[in-house]
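ok so i was messing around last nite and threw this chain in just to see what happens. nothing serious, just curious
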Amino acid sequence: MTNQPADQPEALPFVAPSRTLAIGDPLGWLKLGWRDLLRAPAQSLFYGVALTGLSYLVAGFTWRYGTLALYLGLATGFVFVGPVLAIGLYSISRRSRTAALLRSATACGGMAAPARRATDRGGAPDRAIGLGAGGLYRLHLLPRALRGVLAGLRPFLGIGSAVGAVFSAVVFAASAFSLPMVMDRRTDSITAVVTSVNAVLRNKRPMLVWGALIVASVVLGFLTLFVGFVVLFPLLGHATWHAYRQTIDASAWPVSAPNPRHSRRGP
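result:
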């Protein structure tokens, strides 16, 4: 009877083991993320600028055609969309760890399709800036308008916030480590999601701290009218990569492309 190769599904565990985290580890992830941002500032800030421009575009359409409920959806939408948009940042951190040469073309290749969809729209950035400026001009109308709107929406906001918190918690648990694992190792999405949920449940307090840091960053980004996302988004993206590296032991799975030579896990 022959042995199964290591990269065969039958030879791999159902879930990757997770390490036990300390409650202060998320702060260390931010420190490592900041180091990666300084190592590749142009590539990293590209993603921050892209997200900021996209935020202005969405906020402008919401201001013109939507309601307060859509603004709340815009805020919670970062929980769903952020991990996907940060795939390129995971690639930058991965190449930085292996001392590979960081070039814009290769570093951005991790999310080539989303980047093309965000940038191949011709005058979309100009329209986003114009709509954002219009939103700033109307800010003085918010206090008076919100009083009447909030009075009627208070019951719905309470229910919607509770339901949204549950969905956000589920998405956070499923995406905390799954996308970095899929990019780093040749594994399927189900294994990556189960691994992520398992790691979050085994490290509840550190992950609550990590989730609170993400929420605080999103709130800060909104308070700065999205300008803060230029730095906060790449910082969180790089930090997420280091969170995955410190938490998940995925050494049983083969290293994915583009560089199979770096199969050993670094510090």
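not much to say yet. The chain has one domain: 23-102+134-247.
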